[in-house]
Design a protein that fits this description.
- There is one protein chain.
- About 0% of the residues lie in helices and about 35% in strands.
- It is an all-beta fold.
- It has two domains: about 35-300, Neuraminidase; about 315-555, Neuraminidase.
- The strands form twelve sheets. It has a four-stranded antiparallel beta sheet, with no helix packed on it. It has a four-stranded antiparallel beta sheet with strand order 6-7-8-9, with no helix packed on it. The protein has a four-stranded antiparallel beta sheet with strand order 10-11-12-13, with no helix packed on it.
- The chain is globular and about 65 Å long.
Length: about 550
């Protein structure tokens, strides 16, 4: 366990109540810096620094909040604004989302919450960013939280001096969990409905200085609203923010004081990987934005960010007809980078491949191989020394897809389509070494010549499917979370998609938490379609004019 020095407490943040004493004037640790990629770690070259009173999420005691984030490989890092950025030594399988709520167990030390894809909430005590070793000890706080598509830490909502949580269901019901001051939470209370209208829900901390935590909420159209908290976990009527640039950000990060003036600020990352700083005014609003640093594209999730976190696939596989398979990693800016040879021996004549959303709950997509001759489904786990048989399968299968957890149990599943058009569901067990017996879902899928999925396209936290028919019409099947009827009736996305030779989803390629779509032409052009979180896609963007037409498969 790693500890910090004793600190005074503010309600729900680990610091003294009321506005925090401003520290000695200095430039923010994020100001004028450059994010450098070093062995997969983003390091901020520091500005000046001096020790001062603690802020929420201030792990090194310099008076300003720090950044905790997850990278493309699923690893967690903490960045204090100094060169000693360290990896948080935790099991990446447990981290879908991460929160920095402050001091949860009343010991004067900043804590961290992580949420696993299976819905387990973990409490990590005693985080100390300047000593290698990680998140300290941790324990399970709650389970079954896969029913929520977003969990946020707004601060203290009932003025008892303890940090609280809010959790939203895909249907938009908002629940309040009061903190106990022991690292646990009390029974949930319903505090609102209709919150599914927002694609970002941000636990902002106390924005207006009244001692109660507040929430920011953004619509898919980019309108930001402020909900000031009322004692008891409820909120005043929303107030629209007057700024107009909020749609330009993939992730908006709240709850921190990044300039050390005692007021709660905002950070936001745009689609080019640029980080922007919004100083809090202490009245619920923010000052003009200022550019801070670049190169943050490969951060897949910031602690405290309002987006529904994407999980389990951040890249694509490309196969030659002879059986060589290459991997590409997302850049965070809508492109694919870093082609690497995965292996050979999977020719199209004898195998069918799928690049499934993490079957092993480690944040990494899994290669699934279907043997044409035997029907067997295997997971070669090319980064491990194993080749487990998932299922005996069937020689009748023509397509295998792994869109994520379609049954709502927190474990990724597989889908298989026969030549006659029957869709089967293989429920995953979370190990990546086996799946349950197949269950027949529906028929009529032979009409499609492309079937893909890599998470939630509609913004409700449930993975969806995309299917292209022979006329070029693209259809969306929204996930329901039901094991017996996992998809709703199809909805038309658009026409004209016969222009593309291949359609595939690399997951979230631009860092906004929403899975995206990519397409190639026979001439080798590559196009990117950014997901909107509403089931539709933004206008295509050209990523390459040639070089992508020779692949037998793009997954």
């Amino acid at each position: 366990m790693f500890t910090l020095r004793s600190r005074r407490h503010e309600a729900g943040t680990g610091r003294r109540s009321g506005r925090r004493r401003p520290r000695a004037r200095k430039t923010s640790a994020l100001a004028g810096t450059v994010a450098v990629l070093v062995a997969g770690v983003f390091v901020l070259t520091p500005g000046d620094a001096d020790a001062t009173a603690p802020a929420r999420g201030d792990f090194d005691g310099d008076g300003t909040s720090d950044l905790v984030y997850r990278n493309v490989a699923g690893q967690l890092y903490v960045n204090t604004g100094a060169a000693e950025t360290m990896a948080l030594d935790t099991d990446v399988a447990k981290v879908k989302d991460v929160l920095t709520p402050g001091d949860l167990d009343s010991d004067g030390v900043q804590d961290v919450l992580t949420l696993s894809p299976a819905g387990v909430l973990y409490f990590h005590t005693g985080v100390y960013a300047r000593t290698p070793g990680g998140l300290g000890s941790y324990r399970t706080v709650a389970s079954g939280w896969q029913i929520y598509d977003k969990v946020v830490a707004p601060g203290d909502l009932n003025s008892d001096g303890k940090a609280d949580l809010l959790a939203r269901t895909p249907g938009g019901t908002l629940y309040y969990y009061p903190g106990t001051g022991t690292g646990a939470f009390g029974s949930r209370v319903t505090v609102g409905t209709g919150w599914q209208q927002y694609d970002q829900l941000i636990g902002a901390g106390d924005l207006n200085g009244d001692g109660v935590g507040d929430v920011l909420a953004r619509t898919p159209a980019g309108v930001l609203y402020r909900y000031t908290g009322k004692k008891g976990g409820t909120f005043n009527a929303r107030v629209k923010d007057t700024k107009t640039e909020w749609a330009s950000y993939g992730q908006i990060i709240g709850g921190g004081d990044w300039d050390g003036d005692g007021r709660t600020d905002l950070l936001a990352r745009d689609f080019a990987g640029q980080l922007w700083f919004y100083p809090g005014t202490g009245t619920g609003t923010f000052g003009a934005r200022a550019a801070r640093s670049k190169g943050w594209g490969k951060v897949t999730q910031f602690a405290g960010a309002g987006n529904n976190p994407h999980y389990g696939k951040f890249g694509a596989l490309a196969r030659t007809s002879a059986g060589a398979v290459y991997s590409y990693q997302v850049s965070g800016t809508g492109t694919l980078t870093g082609r690497l040879l995965v292996g050979t021996g999977w020719p199209t004549s004898t195998t069918r491949l799928s690049y499934a959303v993490s079957l092993r709950q480690n944040g990494l997509a899994d290669l699934v191989v279907h043997s044409v001759g035997t029907g067997r489904l295997t997971n070669p786990a090319y980064y491990a020394l194993s080749d487990p048989t998932l299922a005996t399968g069937s020689t009748s299968y023509r397509r295998i897809v792994g869109p994520g957890d379609v049954t709502g149990d927190g474990r990724s599943d597989l889908l298989a389509v026969t030549g006659a058009g029957t869709l089967y569901l293989y429920p995953g067990d979370g190990t990546g070494t086996s799946v349950a017996a197949p269950a027949k879902i529906s028929t009529g899928w032979q009409r499609y010549n492309a079937l893909l999925g890599a998470g939630d396209f509609t913004g409700d936290g449930r993975p969806d499917l995309l299917a292209r028919d022979t006329s070029g019409t693209l259809w969306r099947y929204a996930g329901t979370g039901s094991a017996t009827a996992p998809f709703a009736a199809r909805v038309k996305v658009g026409t004209g998609w016969q222009a593309y030779k291949k359609l595939f989803s690399p997951g979230d390629a631009n860092g906004d938490g929403k899975p995206d779509l990519m397409a190639t032409t026979s001439a080798g052009a590559l196009y990117f379609y950014a997901g909107t979180g509403t089931g539709a896609f933004k206008a295509r963007v050209s990523k390459a004019s040639s070089g992508w037409g020779s692949w037998a498969d793009l997954l």
